Amino acid sequence: MAGRILIIGACGQIGTELTLKLREIHGNDQVVASDIREGAEELMQSGPFEILNATDEAHIKEIVEKYKVKEVYLMAAMLSATAEKAPMKAWDLNMDSLFHILNLAKDGKIDKIFWPSSIAVFGPSTPKDDTPQTTIMEPTTVYGISKQTGERWCEYYFRKFGVDVRSIRYPGIISYKTLPGGGTTDYAIEIFHEAIKNSQYTSFLAKDAALPMMYMDDAIKATVDIMEAPAEKIKVRSSYNLAAISFTPEILAEEIKKHIKDFEISYEPDFRQNIAESWPSSIDDSSAREDWGWTHDFDLDRMTTTMLDGVGKTLKEKA
Ligand code: AKB
Fold it and tell me: Are 154 and 19 in a shared domain?
């Protein structure tokens, strides 16, 4: 590759595993990790790292020049639940960082951008099952509004200035290496930790709150694949629907019970239940499958066994 890759928000749940994967593919010194704070040891020690605030345009430019960066993955964002507590801060972070990167590409300083969107772009008036790629989008969360607006700007920069920006609407991403921060779908990770530690979990979503989810390896594969696809295959320049599995807390608890017989779940829905209710239950991702060959590998059974194994090992290492 001519020029390095920069990951902004590299220490978060997806950023950490994405950085490690990109270092494996392109070489450690080719992938610069950056975040507002330091992250996992493996990430910090395997390649270059810079402390970077994603809203600091001048510092982003400096790092892009210093490392001769040509591709940026902008993973920094405030997620749905946290954003509801600090709406203006979330808006500033989620939008300013995107404009800084889009403008760098517009000015010819970088060649390609990955920017994640989310199922949060949809709202209560969106068809709930098999939500189509193009449909009604009236998000009711700050996070969703920022992602929907971001999608519009990505498409605008592509059409108007030819900026090669690529995006997918992540569902809830399930993983064990780095904990998520402030999402509505986070229960599907907490449940594994609590099941192993205490055989008990109190869900902050109701038992029938069905949401689209995906195991981390599939999310990373999608991210790498969309970025490697030839430009002419990327027909959607706002953001692609992406799907793997959909389940409710009750279904996930049943799946865990197959491995931990005495596991029990109870339900105390909080404000995140309202957010979950406004999102789709399942997603139609046929455009991603047709345009750039997306397929997922992890079903509910494989995801559950992989999580129980991974969380179990992590907790043992910490003990
Ligand atoms: C969240 O719950 O906010 C995120 C998302 C679906 O984008 N995991």
Answer: yes
Domain ranges, residue 183 = 177-213+245-282+298-318
Q: How confident is the model at residue 1 (pLDDT cuts 50, 70, 90)?
A: low
> Is 143 one of the catalytic residues?
yes
Amino acid making up residue 55: T
Distance of CA 123 to the CA centre of its chain: 18
Relative to the CA of 173, which ligand 1 atom is closest? 8
Domain count of the chain?
2
With a CB cutoff of 8 Å and minimum separation 6, the contacts of 186 are: 81, 172, 180
Q: What is the pTM of this model?
A: 0.97
Residue 161 within any structural domain of the chain: yes
Which of 118, 245, 272, 277, when mutated, tests ligand 1's pocket best, judged by the most ligand atoms within 8 Å of its CB? 118
Sorted by sequence, the CB contacts under 8 Å of residue 80 that are 6+ apart come out as: 118, 120, 141, 143, 144, 182, 183, 184, 272, 275
Query: CA separation (Å) from 154 to 55, 235, 280?
Result: 17, 13, 23
User: Is 287 inside a domain boundary?
Assistant: no
Ligand 1 atom nearest to CA at 185: 2
Q: How confident is the model over 113-160, as pLDDT tens digits? A: 999 999 999 999 999 999 999 999 999 999 999 999 999 999 999 999
Q: Residue 49's domain is classified under what CATH number?
A: 3.40.50.720
Query: Could you say which of 67, 73, 143, 240 is catalytic?
Result: 143
Rounded distance from Cα 211 to ligand 1 centre (Å): 10
Span 90-114, pLDDT tens digits: 999 999 999 999 999 999 999 999 9
One domain, residues 71 and 25? yes
Where does ligand 1 bind, in terms of residues with CB under 6 Å?
A: 79-80, 118-120, 143, 170, 172, 183-185
Residue pair 180/193 in contact (Cβ under 8 Å)? The answer is: no
Do 128 and 192 share a domain, yes or no?
no
Residue 203 and residue 128 in one domain: no
Q: How far is the CA of 155 from the centre of ligand 1 (A)?
A: 22
Supply the CATH number for residue 249's domain: 3.90.25
Atom of ligand 1 nearest to the CA of 147: 7
- Judge if 43 and 70 occupy the same domain: yes
Task: Encode pLDDT of 170-206 as tens digits.
Answer: 999 999 999 888 999 999 999 999 999 999 999 999 9
